[in-house]
């Protein structure tokens, strides 16, 4: 075995160099010839270089270079290109394309773009339209991945598109990317034209997934931009399901792109917990498709917005410190202005007005350098909120003016939000009321209630009360929105209008039966109103409120704990104290009745029994009130149920718990006998996994058992999915799952063997052997042991092959 060891090879070569240096050049030349003759050009390249024959090395390397980029041999390729005079290979498109990828990996963005353009020009000049189209797609896709200004992409695309033969197979994909670029700068008619052109090309039939690609692009850049966000989300889900079930057809890795865009829509709709879960799935999918460079920025942007809106400031600060600085190192890109925006939000949370002002100015500079962007109005709204929160009112108003100046091209959801924020920062008065009325008009036009229900819920109460009192916006819309918001927003409106027009309170009282989560104190207040009509409306609503079923609860625990009641996120402060949330989490993990003594031991072990019991009862009361604010005093909870001295969580059929849903899907998938159906069910189960269970309480004893079950099941799903995809002839998809498994549990040899077999089966013998060495090094380092006999035997077979 030692004959194959690189240290032994190095020893022999050094001895030869010392004893017979004159023989080296001839031996390298002979070795290169032998390797070439047996069909191993990669081995021949290095010998040609050592023999001083660069032209022969270039000839051997050209067909290999592009294939080496996404493998561990990329650094070897970089060394070879550096050792070969560029003048000798500057006219070889394959090598220029490889150089572009290497430059991109080193962060030399402009040089990489120039190299790609050079390769495209060379290929078109030679009439190699197929390879030129692949290079153009790569260039445009790289622009997206690295946040380059879309107008640059559009100019490049227009410069080359007309030169391609209509039958070029990759041409439909180029038109799809061009449509996305047009959508990014709000040129919707041109985006539609590019989508139509893609579907009309003769080569469209070569892309079975092209309809899904077009649907994804149209959903995000046209439907969502027009305010049809719910429709856009449904379209994205359907197209993504198709691509997940037909992964071999997804030649452009568009499922990963769609996951990123879906996360953006979820954030825009205020569904932040789902956006966090989507960010996790986006990162995992991108890593499986060797698109890790995108995830650093796309995943971080999705997570940062969601974490800020959820008030998880410590996590946001950690993210910006660990990875966010990478955004700032890319001036003139989408990542730079987004970084400064999130840094301003964080500064506002800390009350640091100097930091906010500095980051706002940096964001403005970056936005000017970047040019038009579909999210520009939303970014200005974020910056305006940050400055308003630290008392920089005039600056906030100026930022909203900038947002509204872009009104002609801003997508409706972003424009409506900017107008809403303008109503806040300008306050009551002509300009503030004008913007508030505009926000309501846009909401009605685009059916964009989510802006008030979720996205800017914390601002909704005072604004809707102001609209009701002043008659702003479309008739009855403010009252309808207040009722849809329900809960604390409806209560805020009732309280704010106590001295306002009776007609406004009457509108609210008449909407009372529609309002979810309305506490009894709100009903009592309206019943005691000084206006007889308001009293009558409240009396009419009382029996309807009593007969109304409890709204569905959605408990999200993977990747972070959050609870929704109906459409409304229950804020952390509604639980009163952190231990109320912990108590709910513990009962969910237990999945059984938990005796009171056990709960006391978990949460109050340091207190005397009497004080611990009092603390428990207060915490239990706060938990029940948070989950059911309309529960009459003294009434029994239907969610946290007492059974003698034990307690458990009882979920109704309309309720859901993400970890329970994942375990249920996984159980059915793992037990499925039909292989085709099993693969589909495993993919759905894998997609339902949203990350670590209750990451807030990683070391809590009450979470250990359930967390271990979720992690064990997740690994089983990934393993069977990898094995099934391999058996179904989808090795690339299977590789990604095995790689994910080895990251989760590096010491598991079976998963390293799976990677070795897949690499060998796809002709990557060197990667298969390298995986063995990686496995052996890890086992030696971490456990002080050698690989098992089975792993060593597989290695020997691969060597023999």
Mind sketching the topology for me?
Layout (H helix, E strand, L loop, with lengths): L5 H14 L3 H15 L3 H10 L3 H8 L3 H4 L5 H10 L2 H4 L3 H13 L3 H17 L3 H17 L4 H12 L9 H14 L3 H13 L9 H14 L5 H17 L8 H15 L3 H17 L3 H18 L3 H16 L5 H16 L3 H18 L5 H14 L3 H13 L6 H15 L3 H17 L3 H6 L1 H14 L6 H9 L1 H10 L5 H10 L8 H8 L4 H16 L5 E4 L5 E4 L2 E2 L8 H13 L3 E2 H8 L5 H19 L12 E4 L2 E4 L6 E2 H14 L3 H14 L12 H27 L3 H14 L4 H13 L3 H19 L5 H12 L1
Parallel strand pairs: 1-7
Antiparallel strand pairs: 1-2, 2-3, 4-6, 5-6
Helix pairs in contact: 2-3, 3-4, 6-8, 8-9, 9-10, 10-11, 10-12, 11-12, 12-13, 12-14, 13-14, 14-15, 14-16, 15-16, 16-17, 16-18, 17-18, 17-39, 18-19, 18-20, 19-20, 20-21, 20-22, 21-22, 22-23, 22-24, 23-24, 24-25, 27-28, 27-29, 28-29, 28-30, 30-32, 31-32, 33-35, 33-38, 36-37, 36-38, 37-38, 38-39, ...
Write up this protein.
The protein has 801 residues and is mostly helical. The protein is 71% helix and 3% strand. The protein contains 42 helices and seven strands. The strands form two sheets. Strands 3-2-1-7 form a four-stranded mixed sheet. A three-stranded antiparallel sheet has the order 4-6-5. Strand 5 (640-643) and strand 6 form a beta hairpin. The longest helix has 27 residues, at 701-727. The model has no long low-confidence stretch (mean pLDDT 89).
């Amino acid at each position: 075995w030692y004959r194959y060891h690189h240290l032994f090879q190095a020893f022999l070569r050094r001895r030869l160099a010392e004893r017979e240096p004159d023989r080296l050049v001839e031996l390298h030349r002979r070795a290169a010839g032998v390797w070439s003759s047996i069909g191993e050009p990669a081995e021949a390249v290095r010998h040609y270089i050592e023999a001083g024959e660069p032209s022969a090395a270039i000839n051997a390397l050209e067909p290999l270079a592009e294939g080496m980029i996404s493998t561990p041999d990329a650094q070897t390729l970089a060394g070879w290109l550096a050792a070969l005079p560029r003048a000798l290979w500057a006219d070889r498109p394959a090598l220029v394309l490889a150089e572009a990828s290497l430059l991109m990996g080193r962060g030399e963005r402009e040089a990489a773009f120039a190299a790609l353009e050079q390769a495209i020009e060379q290929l078109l000049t030679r009439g190699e339209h197929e390879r030129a189209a692949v290079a153009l797609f790569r260039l445009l896709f790289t622009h997206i991945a690295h946040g380059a200004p879309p107008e640059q992409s559009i100019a490049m695309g227009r410069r080359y598109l007309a030169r391609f033969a209509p039958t070029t197979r990759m041409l439909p994909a180029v038109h799809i990317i061009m449509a996305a670029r047009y959508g990014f700068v709000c040129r919707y008619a041109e985006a539609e034209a590019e989508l139509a052109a893609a579907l009309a090309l003769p080569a469209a039939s070569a892309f079975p997934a092209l309809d899904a690609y077009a649907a994804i692009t149209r959903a995000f850049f046209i439907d969502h931009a027009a305010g049809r966000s719910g429709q856009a989300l449904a379209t994205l889900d359907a197209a993504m399901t198709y691509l997940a079930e037909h992964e071999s057809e997804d030649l452009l890795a568009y499922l990963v792109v769609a996951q990123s865009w879906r996360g953006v829509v979820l954030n825009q709709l205020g569904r932040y917990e789902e956006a966090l879960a989507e960010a996790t799935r986006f990162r995992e999918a991108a890593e499986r498709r060797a698109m890790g460079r995108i995830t650093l920025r796309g995943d971080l942007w999705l997570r940062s917005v969601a974490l800020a809106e959820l008030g998880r400031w410590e996590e946001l600060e950690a993210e910006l410190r660990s990875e966010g600085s990478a955004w700032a190192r890319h001036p003139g890109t989408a990542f730079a202005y987004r970084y400064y925006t999130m840094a301003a939000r964080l500064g506002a949370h800390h009350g640091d007005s100097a930091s906010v002002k500095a980051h706002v100015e940096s964001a403005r500079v970056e936005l000017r350098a970047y040019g038009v962007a579909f999210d520009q109005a939303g970014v200005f709204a974020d910056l305006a909120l940050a400055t308003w929160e630290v008392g920089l009112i005039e600056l906030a108003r100026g930022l909203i003016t900038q947002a509204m100046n872009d009104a002609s091209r801003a997508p409706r959801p972003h424009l409506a939000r900017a107008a809403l924020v303008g109503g806040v920062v300008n306050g009551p008065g002509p300009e503030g009321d004008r913007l508030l009325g505009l926000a309501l008009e846009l909401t009605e036009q685009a059916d964009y209630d989510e802006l008030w229900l979720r996205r800017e819920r914390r601002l909704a109460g005072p604004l809707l009360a102001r609209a009701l009192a002043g008659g702003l916006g479309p008739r009855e819309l403010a009252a309808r929105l207040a009722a849809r918001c329900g809960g604390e927003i409806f209560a805020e409106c009732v309280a704010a209008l106590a001295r306002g027009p009776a007609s406004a309170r009457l509108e609210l009282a008449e909407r009372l039966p529609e309002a979810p989560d309305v506490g009894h104190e709100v009903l009592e207040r309206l019943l005691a109103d000084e206006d007889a009509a308001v009293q009558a409306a409240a009396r009419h609503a009382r029996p309807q409120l009593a007969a109304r079923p409890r709204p569905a609860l959605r408990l999200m625990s993977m990747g972070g704990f959050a609870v929704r009641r109906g459409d409304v996120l229950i804020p952390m402060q509604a639980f009163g104290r952190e231990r109320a949330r912990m108590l709910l989490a513990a009962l969910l993990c237990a999945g059984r009745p938990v005796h009171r003594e056990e709960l006391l031991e978990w949460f109050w072990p340091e207190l005397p029994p009497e004080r611990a019991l009092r603390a428990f009862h207060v915490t239990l009361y706060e938990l029940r009130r948070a989950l059911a604010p309309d529960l009459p005093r003294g009434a029994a909870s239907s969610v946290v149920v007492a059974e003698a001295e034990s307690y458990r969580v009882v979920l109704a059929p309309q309720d859901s718990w993400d970890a329970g849903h994942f375990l249920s899907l996984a159980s059915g998938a793992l037990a499925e006998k039909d292989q085709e159906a099993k693969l589909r069910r495993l993919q759905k189960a894998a997609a339902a996994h949203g990350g670590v269970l209750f990451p807030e309480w990683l070391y809590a004893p009450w979470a250990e058992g359930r967390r271990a079950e979720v992690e064990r099941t997740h690994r089983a799903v990934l393993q069977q999915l990898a094995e099934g995809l391999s058996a179904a002839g989808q090795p690339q998809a299977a590789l990604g799952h095995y790689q994910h498994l080895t990251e989760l549990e590096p010491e598991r040899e079976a998963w390293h063997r799976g990677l070795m077999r897949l690499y060998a089966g796809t002709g990557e013998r060197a990667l298969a052997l390298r995986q063995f060495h990686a496995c052996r090094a890890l086992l030696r380092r971490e456990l002080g042991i050698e690989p098992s006999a089975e792993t060593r035997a597989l290695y020997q077979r691969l060597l023999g092959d």
